[in-house]
Amino acid sequence: MSRKKFLEALQRVRLGDHEGARRSLDDVDLGFIHRRLQHYLGQPDHREAAVALEDALRARLSPREVPADLVPPAFEGPLAPAGPVVRQLGYIDFDHPEAFLRWASADWDSLPPLDLGALTYTDVWALVGLASLRLPERGRRPPVAALDQRGVGRFAHALGLEGVMGGAAPTLLEAQRTVRLTRVSSREAIEPVAERIASLLLTGARTQDAQLTARYVLIELLRNAIQHSGDPLGAVVAAQRMDERQHRARPMIQVAVADAGVGIPRSLKRQHPHLVDYRQALERALLPHISGTFREGLTGSFENAGLGLYVISEMARKTGGRMLLATPGAALVLRAGAEGPRFLQPPGVGFPGTLAAFELPIDAERTYTELISSILRTAELRTPKRQTHRWLVYRPEQAATVVHLREAREDTLAAARVAETSLRPAILERRAVVLDFDGLDLCTQSWLHALLYEAVRLAWALQTPVHVVNAEPAVVEGLRFLEAYALGG
Fold this sequence. Notes:
Strand order of the largest sheet: 3-4-5-9-6-7-8
Radius of gyration: 23 Å
Structural class: alpha/beta
Order of helices and strands: HHHHEHEHHHEHHEEHHHEEEEHEEHEHEH
Number of strands: 13
CATH class of the largest domain: Alpha Beta
Shape: globular
Distance between the termini: 45 Å
Strand content: 5-15%
Helix content: 40-55%
Number of helices: 17
CATH topology of the largest domain: Heat Shock Protein 90
Oligomer: single chain
């Protein structure tokens, strides 16, 4: 009977009925489910359905509620170090992240409550990570003492930690220096939240380039959390403007996003079964065209180019900023001038989900257009090449169908709908079509990919150009890069 129910669940996920698949297995022994999953994960014809079923089962559980016998030994090395010492949590920043991450990835049942009032300082990223683990809907949460006005407790209260955890919202906040903890659980909220955060902390003409960079980073990090984490509760985000009071030698903005989903290694494992080490998986995630949605050697899937973390990491390198990335089993810090990322010690330290923090100098010398151009030129060197005619033409066309893109900005599903309903039909009928980018000062590669990846390949096949008008220079660079990799692989 259990075998029959498991096969029924597999069939349901193939049909997209994940809730029905979960109900089919409600009374089936978890050990049996685990053994069946391992069997079908090893069969190419059934692997995709088995992965979908595994994710469907995990989506109803919080990260700490997953039974041990349902977690396959997918990677080598320890998942989390033992014996964190909470009293070591005195000072948490980019240079001292290990103690907090050891605490977050430990056995919560063995921990005394974390007293934020006893801490002398913390960067905003640690409170973002804590908030994501303490959302009131989670069945299991790390223990935290009641907030008061001592030490970091005061900052946590002002940032809205109590409100995110289900308590009272803050009454006082440094509006020009901090953006309170905010939950994001839908695609539609990503771009408005990113724009609000960047515009609140970065004002004036001199910070316009930093504002565009911060928006790009926030959109990509939030999109990763919403689309790929598998966390049904979404992400938590916050930001802070920092200077000498936060021990920064130059003015910085720090943004952070966290979720409690499956994590980067498990996400990549679906399409990259050769990754058997947590650190290896995390390091590969920073390379261009590496994603859990398509195999290595390809350059994209339906709405994913595998470029988000790569572009963000290069932004950190090229602006004089830095980046923290933590996930189950591994964590790293990347900074400008370093040969490569610094993996945190001891091995196995990480975060039960994905925690990403990014620091950007407000006074960075490069313009946003120069920054994007430099990063995409570097990525293009790693992209498969084919001798091609360029099918994106940067001039208007008379008597053409004009597609205005402003309403779809940074919504990848909306971009894909534009491609399906307006762009691809025109190309198939060999009708002239013009894409109007008016009002779009920023376009992430993920959004351009959803809009044009398949359309460019179709335009090449049918020898039909697509016209582009009113595109900012940085957007044109993104379009040229997309065309190169779409036609190369």
